[in-house]
Design a protein that fits this description.
Blueprint lengths: L1 E5 L3 E6 L4 E7 L4 E2 L15 E2 L10 E4 L2 E4 L12 E5 L3 E7 L2 H6 L4 E10 L2 E10 L5 E3 L1 E3 L2 E3 L11 E5 L3 E9 L2 E10 L3 E3 L10 E4 L5 E6 L6 E7 L3 E5 L6 E8 L18 E3 L4 E11 L1
Length: 290
């Protein structure tokens, strides 16, 4: 089931399944900016990553002496959320633990996702609440996929990602979905040129960024551009499938496992901890501008 919010500039659709951003349509540009989920390349559009980000070594982890299995990016993207607020310009969805989630993740929690339109932006807020009587270990991330190139006849090399600040940051190198190395990554003049070769070894995962927003735009500066602003995140992922006409811009608070992981969830790279009755909040804004 889909829910709609809109104003005079944007029309936004959210799928109850996964509380996934399904459509971001600009009335000004008369254009859809969220990837259409074509299964030839990638069937998702903007999944939520919880309670892990990335892949676990052997798809398993251990906690308190017990072993659990979980697929890449966790289960939130594959379960139905409950709509708790439905208004013209705002939607809120909630996910509670249940019998199935407890088999994969033995913790009681609430994951709330709010979508709100303001002008040419959609503001997305994630709130994670610990309902358990013990510390809640978790990771969380957004994973929106944007149509790129914006127009037929263009190619990915016609675009770049512009960062808010010049960056000498970390890049986590992946091997079969696991972190194998970490290196310095220099983004000169705030610009990261896009190409198919950039993603030949999977996602580009960056850490220790100064920037809190990035823009996806044409190198010639013409037409529309997408702004993605993020608050409360430690990492940023960029990813696309080979030859696919989309680009994912992914604020993360979590990481895939390292190749040498010992499966211990408490020692997992990028894990976060919530005391009982406490909440963690993460925010992302997506804007469409000239």
């Amino acid at each position: 089931m889909f829910y709609l919010i809109e104003n005079n500039l944007l029309k936004v659709e959210v799928n109850k399944s996964g509380a996934e951003l399904f459509s971001l349509f600009s009335k000004k540009f008369q254009k859809e900016f969220i990837w259409n989920g074509d299964p030839e390349f990638w069937q998702r559009r903007s999944p939520l990553l919880f309670p892990i980000v990335g892949r676990l070594k052997d798809d398993t982890y251990e906690i308190e002496g017990n072993q659990f299995s979980m697929k890449q990016h966790g289960f939130a993207r594959d379960v139905v959320f409950n709509p708790s607020k439905v208004e013209k310009k705002e939607l809120v969805f909630e996910l509670f633990e249940n019998e199935e989630t407890m088999k994969m993740y033995p913790f009681r929690f609430i994951l709330r996702i709010a979508y709100k339109i303001e002008g040419a932006k959609v503001k997305i807020k994630a709130e994670i609440e610990n309902r358990d009587d013990k510390i809640l270990p978790f990771s969380f991330g957004f994973h929106p996929a944007f149509v790129c190139p914006f127009n037929i006849g263009e190619k990915i090399e016609d675009y770049y990602v512009v960062f808010g600040k010049e960056e000498i940051c970390e890049r986590f190198v992946l091997e079969n979905g696991l972190i194998s190395n970490k290196e310095l990554f220099n983004i000169q003049d705030k610009v990261l040129n896009l190409s198919e070769n950039l993603f030949e070894n999977d996602a580009v995962i960056l850490g220790k960024l100064l920037s809190k927003k990035v823009f996806l735009q044409r190198k010639n500066g013409r037409g529309s551009k997408i702004e993605v602003a993020f608050k409360g995140f430690q990492y940023l992922g960029l990813w696309k499938k080979k030859d696919a006409p989309f680009l994912c811009i992914e604020p993360w608070n979590g990481l895939p496992d390292y190749k040498e992981s010992d499966h211990n969830f408490i020692r997992k790279a990028g894990i976060n901890f919530l005391e009982r009755n406490c909440k963690a909040t993460y925010e992302m804004e997506i804007g469409v501008f000239e």
